[in-house]
Amino acid sequence: MSEPTAFPLRLPEMPLHDPFIVADSGSGLYHLYTSNLASSGAPGAGTMVYRSRDLREWAEPVPVFLVDEEDAPWAVHGAWAPEVHRWNDRWYLFTTLHDTDAPLPVPRPGEYGTPFPVANYRRSTIVAAADALTGPFRMLKPEAPILPADLMTLDGTLFVDEDGEPWMVCANEWLQRIDGTVEAFPLNRALDGVDGEPMVLFRGSDASWITRELPAGVPHQIAPYVTDGPQLHRFGDTLVCLWSTYEKNRLTEGGIDGDYVQTWAVAPSGRLEGPWEQREPLVRGDSGHGMLFTAFDGTLMMVLHRPFTGARGKLYEMTWDGSDLKVLRQRTDLDGD
């Protein structure tokens, strides 16, 4: 795929959810991945990419991955939260597919003190590979989920540990757990299968500020705790995990209700198994599913989406002071508000 020559878009004009940016020094372009829309020129479930030289002006999106219903019969919808990572000299796309016609067990009505309002169904993160950031990406295991098919997992990300071994870190849905988790599954080196026992890194309820913000009269044990969008970043010997959730949340007949926030946790040990310490949210105001990246000028940046419905990308300049991750400022010169 040729490099773009026109950059007519600004972030306020670009519909996107769960943004992920790769700063590619080889091409001098930022690649911003999100779920595919018809504006890419190829309708259907999949992933598209916007490209930019400066994070301010962006080219029209192009598709890099589309779900083939014949090749991937187990799930052909969704393609949420795409991420692209370098591994063994190729690019690997992680994105979450689902199938509403493949039901999974749900908590029994009344088991947590309230009727459960939604149906659970198969949901899992796939891995696809390509030789270029612009694809085309091909699924490594189209015939079945890589993670256990009985788990409702989403938002998988690649993490490589201190021994050089790959893991998929993902959220296990509050829809299935009530108290959602962030879990890690060891992968084989081909990234197409689980190779060992998973571990739970932390639970949504571990963030004490969520309990603090619960509405009056909501028992602690029945409140749903959402875990969403984990992304790991190493600062020297310290490991940080961005994730999103809801504060002031409650379970309603329509699902979850609350304020979407971007939060984070830290493992001072630098090890995936932690222990993990939960910190206060970085950004509130119906914002979340963020990730960290380093701009071409060396600036630490975070991109996330806001609002949850009708999302647009928002950019923040960040700093790490050795123990604390902080927002310095929103880059309204880049994201337009």
UniProtKB/TrEMBL annotation:
Keyword field contains GTP-binding: no
Record's keyword annotation contains Aminoacyl-tRNA synthetase: no
The protein's name: Glycosyl hydrolases family 43
SUPFAM superfamilies for the chain: Arabinanase/levansucrase/invertase (SSF75005)
Alphabetic keyword roster: Glycosidase, Hydrolase
GO MF term set: hydrolase activity, hydrolyzing O-glycosyl compounds
Family: Belongs to the glycosyl hydrolase 43 family.
GO biological process: carbohydrate metabolic process
Superkingdom of origin: Bacteria
